[in-house]
Every structure is written in structure tokens, then in C-alpha cells.
TrEMBL record:
Protein name: Methyltransferase type 12
Species the sequence originates in: Candidatus Sulfobium mesophilum
Domain of life: Bacteria
Keyword Transferase assigned: yes
Residues of the Methyltransferase domain: 41-139
Pfam families reported for this sequence: Methyltransf_25
Keywords tagged on the record: Methyltransferase, Transferase
Keyword Methyltransferase: yes
Lineage, opening ranks: Bacteria, Pseudomonadati, Nitrospirota, Nitrospiria, Nitrospirales
InterPro entries membership: Methyltransf_25, SAM-dependent_MTases_sf
């Protein structure tokens, strides 16, 4: 089972306040700025497909890749919300470090810090090679990640999140452990799920290892894979990255 195995059952509830539509609009604006004729988009690490559904409804031909069967099951269950006459969206299982679809796309995206889940230089390089291999001529690669200067300035802290719907009450405790010599944070999740009807409580634990990145190393790794940065800005705001910028969005060309 992948790192998102059991977690995937409650993923959309835990992130129901996440503005997928607004984030997809931000991606759309970046595409229109840097490759306005783009029609096909590949999402590396699509999760439950929140961004892809919105972009497909906007008219892009979308393909989503994720390693987690459980996350893809949730994603596929939402396809009925799209009009098949106007939208194209397909999901496939695959490892973003190794998957090869045998075709190219105008845009490759990798959002919600998927790149930060690539915690070694080899993982990052392999993921970037995958993106480059699937880019059409003139295409762009858009991704976001944890930004090192901000992570070290405003260090991760213990956080508790509690959400519920008509069936469940979910409480998640996130306890971070930093590994400064590896530029990695282990986020240890302890999740309690109470079923309202029965009162039963389910408990699960997962560790998500996240790498924070710095601009010079991103530039170096991209250069080694035949790509270069067009822009780097704070996710959603477009501001210049700084010590208070935990999430940075990169637009890259092949």
C-alpha cells in the first residue's frame, strides 16, 4: 500500500476547504500567459483529481497519473460529474519517476507539492526527466514545492485539524520531524476517524516525507534534464519568493 493508502479514504474530507477550482484557474492563467495555444495537459501525481476535473471542464484534454490505486479509485468515481461530450479526462496508475505514456503534451503539471515527495536527488531528477519526456515542442512544465528559505524561517509545527461530514468525524494530528542535513521533513500523521452511526473509532498512522527545495538546486537539476526556469513565484499570489513563501510555483520550459 502506498503512503496515501488508508489516508486516501479521508483525503477529500480533510482537504474539502482546499480551493481546487481557484488553483486550477491559477494554473490556467499561467498556461495562457506562457503557452496560450495549449490543449493537452498531463498531471503527474494527480491524487483524487481535484485540479484535473476543473481543468477538463475548462476544455483541456487531461491525463492524470498517480501511484496510489486508492486515490485513483476516488478520482475515477468523480468522472460522472463531467460532460463526456465536452471534456476529456483519463486517469492511469504509474510512478512519476518512471512512467512513459509514449506521447507528448502541451503542458505537464505536478501540484500540491508532489515534487517535494521526491526526497532524493535521483527521485527529483527522474521525475523531471519524466516531465521532459512528455513535453511537446514549446511545452511548459508547472510545479510547486516546499521552499527552503521559508521552511527554515517559519519551521513546521504540530498542527491539529478536525473536520466532519454526515457520516464521519476526522481528527488529524500532524507532528513534523526535521532532518536538516537531508533538507527533509517527516510529517507524522495520526488520524482518528469516528463513525457517527456506530460510534466506532478507527485509528491510522502514516508518515509523509517531504523535501524542501532552494532555487539554485532546482535550477541545477532542471538544467541537467534539459529544462530551464521561466518564472518562480509564490503559489497563487505571484509574489517574488522569500522567507515567508512556503509554497513556490515554477514554470519551466524544455
Amino acid at each position: 500500500m502506498t503512503v496515501f493508502g488508508l489516508y486516501s479514504r479521508y483525503y477529500d474530507l480533510l482537504y474539502r476547504d482546499k480551493d481546487y477550482a481557484g488553483e486550477a484557474e491559477h494554473v490556467h492563467s499561467l498556461i495562457q500567459r506562457h503557452f496560450p495555444g495549449a490543449k493537452t495537459v498531463l498531471d503527474l501525481g494527480c491524487g483524487t483529481g481535484g485540479h484535473d476535473l476543473t481543468l477538463a471542464a475548462r476544455g483541456y484534454s487531461m491525463t492524470g497519473i498517480d501511484m496510489s490505486e486508492e486515490m485513483l479509485a476516488v478520482a475515477n468515481s468523480q468522472l460522472s460529474s463531467l460532460d463526456p461530450q465536452q471534456s476529456t479526462l483519463d486517469f492511469f496508475q504509474g510512478d512519476i519517476r518512471t512512467v512513459r505514456l509514449g506521447k507528448t503534451f502541451d503542458v505537464v503539471i505536478s501540484l500540491f507539492h508532489v515534487v517535494s515527495y521526491q526526497t532524493t536527488n535521483k527521485d527529483l531528477t527522474d521525475a523531471f526527466v519524466t516531465a521532459r519526456a512528455h513535453l511537446a515542442h514549446g511545452g511548459i512544465f508547472i510545479f510547486d514545492c516546499w521552499y527552503g528559505p521559508a521552511v527554515l524561517t517559519d519551521r513546521p509545527a504540530v498542527r491539529v485539524k478536525r473536520l466532519e461530514d454526515d457520516q464521519l468525524i476526522v481528527t488529524r494530528i500532524a507532528e513534523p520531524v526535521m532532518h536538516p542535513n537531508d533538507n527533509v521533513v517527516d510529517v507524522n500523521y495520526h488520524v482518528f476517524v469516528r463513525y457517527k452511526a456506530s460510534g466506532e473509532v478507527q485509528e491510522l498512522k502514516e508518515t509523509h516525507r517531504m523535501r524542501y527545495l532552494f532555487l539554485p538546486e532546482v535550477e541545477l537539476l532542471l538544467r541537467e534534464t534539459g529544462m530551464s526556469i521561466i518564472s518562480a513565484s509564490e503559489w497563487m499570489t505571484g509574489r517574488e519568493p522569500g522567507f515567508d513563501t512556503w509554497g513556490v510555483c515554477f514554470v519551466v520550459k524544455g
